[in-house]
Amino acid sequence: MNAPDLPPNTVITTGDGVPLELETATVFSRMLSGLIDYSLLTIIILLTLGSLDYTTVVDFNDPQTKAISTLTIAIGLVFLPALVTAASGGRTIGKLITRTQVVRADGGSISVRDALLRSLVGIGEVWMTLGALATIVAAFSKTGSRMGDLFAGTLVIRRIPARPRQRNTPLSPEVEHWASNATFQGAPASLVNAAATHLAVMEKMAPATREERSRTLAAQLREYATPHPPAETAAEMFIAAALAAIARNGAQAAQASLKKNRTTSSRATALPYGLE
């Protein structure tokens, strides 16, 4: 029985409902990063236990000795790797070297709870089987996930070097003129945030998914536009123009509110007519 081929990319859906195409880590890179991380943890545990003065406390049946040993091992096997994983945003030393990262199944940053669950499951599938069970599960998983990932709802992805920030979507003169006069009355903040997120991440999306998402968001934004945009305006160009118009509308509203507040304040503090 052959292991299924691991797809180079996995499509996930963010909390904003945005589909993203991420490159999952290979089983080999996961094995290498795990070997590095767990070797470092083993060294830390051994050094910590060795630093305890067992030359004078040799009775391992002593309750205090048992408590210290159990606490040290628990911290080393569960709490330390979980805290390091969560604090580093899923980028442990082994994963930095292999250029991989642990993220939530929706692409978000891993939480302490997720990291603790991964570490707890890792006691059985990594420590007790020397990584054999974790490797087998990852090899046959569609996303290359071990049991800890499946229980915690996480993924290990390949980190791609950050690309230069994309320039704003260029607008045609006709669309730019429309945006300078358009208003978007009642556009939900959730829709505006989803549109902004889409423009920020659309370069990482699969072409078909990107086009479909652009058309959907453009259609939703168009319902709140007054007047409607020029005919045949490309979806992504319209979204960029709409966000610019919404930002301008918000700035104008804020300035009008500030001016009104200043006028009201000056009238309230002015002396009555005829009084000096």
TrEMBL record:
Region (Disordered) residue spans: 256-276
Ranges of residues in domain RDD: 24-153
UniProt keywords, alphabetically: Membrane, Transmembrane, Transmembrane helix
Highest taxon above the source species: Bacteria
One protein family per Pfam: RDD
Primary site of residence: membrane
Membrane topology: Multi-pass membrane protein
Transmembrane helix listed as a keyword: yes
Positions of transmembrane segments: 35-55, 67-87, 120-140
Subcellular location: Membrane
Protein name: RDD family membrane protein YckC
